[in-house]
Amino acid sequence: MSNARSKAFEGEARRQSLAVAKRARNPESDEAKSLKALDALINEEQLRDEWKA
Fold first, then answer.
1. Where are the domains of the chain?
2. How far apart are CA 52 and CA 39, in angstroms?
3. Residue 34: enclosing H or E segment and its boundaries?
4. Alpha-carbon distance 33 to 50, whole Å?
5. What's the whole-number mean pLDDT along residues 11-33?
6. φ, ψ (nearest 5 deg) of residue 26
7. CA-CA-CA-CA torsion sign (23, 29, 32, 37)
C-alpha cells in the first residue's frame, strides 16, 4: 500500500474510531450496550481463562 493510501486509511480508521467512542459515551446507545455485553462476556470465568491463554 502506498504511503498516501496508508495515511488515508489510518486517518479514516481514526475518524471512525473517534465517532464510535463518542456514541459509546451515551449509555443508551447501541455502542455502549455492545461494550457492556462484551465486558460481561470477558468477565465470565471460562472466557477469561481462554483470553489469558
1. 3-52
2. 15
3. helix 30-43
4. 23
5. 96
6. -85, 115
7. negative
Residue 30, pLDDT above cutoff 80:
yes
- For residue 37, give Cα distances in angstroms to 3, 4, 18, 20, 32: 37, 37, 20, 16, 9
3-class SS at 26? Answer: coil
Q: What is the pLDDT of residue 14?
A: 97
pLDDT per position as a tens digit, 5-15:
999 999 999 99
Instruction: Extract the C-alpha cell encoding 28.
Output: 443508551
Neighbours of 24 (CB within 10 A): 16
